[in-house]
Amino acid sequence: MEPTMKGFKQFLLRGNAVDLAVGVVIGAAFGSIVNSMVKGLLTPFIAAVARQPDFSSITFTIHGSKFLCLLSKICG
Length: 76
Description:
Elements: H1 3-13, H2 16-50, E1 59-62, E2 65-68, H3 72-75
Antiparallel strand pairs: 1-2
């Protein structure tokens, strides 16, 4: 086996790379779960409470400054 491949194999088997890969996979899965819950549960709930199913015209005010809802994933 070539020295480069042997070193790479030792690096992978140390555990750091495997832990990182597992963390990335779990993070991606958790991100998609959160996005699905927001899109499927939270957004319709907010639309029902606000009685405004179209989020493109929702605004909010903080300390006298008026903000438009600019989050395309949440606001439509």
